Amino acid sequence: MRTSIEVAKYIEQLLKEKKMKPVDLAEKTGVNKSTISRYFSGTRKIPMDEIGKFAEALDVEPADLLIEKTEENPTPFYKENDETTTTTKEDAVTYIPNARSINLYGSVAAGALAIIDGVTELNVEKLTVSPQFLGPYANCKELFAMRVNGDSMNEVIRDGEIVIAKQQETYKDGDIVIFSHNNEYSLKRYRPNEIEGFVLFKSESSDSNFKDIIVPKDTNGELKILGKVVYCGMIF
Fold first, then answer.
1. What is the pTM of this model?
2. Where does 60-112 have alpha helices with state H?
3. Which of 45, 166, 188, 228 is catalytic?
4. What is the mean pLDDT of the chain?
């Protein structure tokens, strides 16, 4: 399985082979050219939901970008019922071994509180995740995912990355959580004991313009913590 920077380098190689330039890739994918440059330099990871765009623009399968073909592994593979099966052009979407499918509920603001994208059970996206990224949570059923929008947590979680969160009964001081207040949502560091009578949701950003969010503890149920972040970054 290629790392993010290896995927970017392979995309650069394909561009040269196909006599294409980054600007051509930007036009075909709709991804900003400066963002593509950051992928190539390694200063930003390629989100999983853009792999399909790049594969289509380069006329390859998504699995071709993610998994390096070798003599031992000439085609990407997955496991089903404990048996290894090679993929074809038709079923190449099942390229992740022992993959899990997790609901992806739109985007969450890493900044001020914001209205969440409208999502219903009928239109919710599915995120295919390799269990190696979930560690001890690989078999946990209480997981959901969201895409991060904003830079208020960019010292630990960058804009555009995907977070996977676990729903649980209690949360500890220091957890990074997705929470709602008055039906608006955000992503912050949970600090319930720093200010008497209030819950502090702390920003961790290189930009001082982003401020902490302070919510009274007595909110009549209007404050809800939806989950603790257990993974952030690329999803391969």
1. 0.59
2. 62-66
3. 188
4. 80
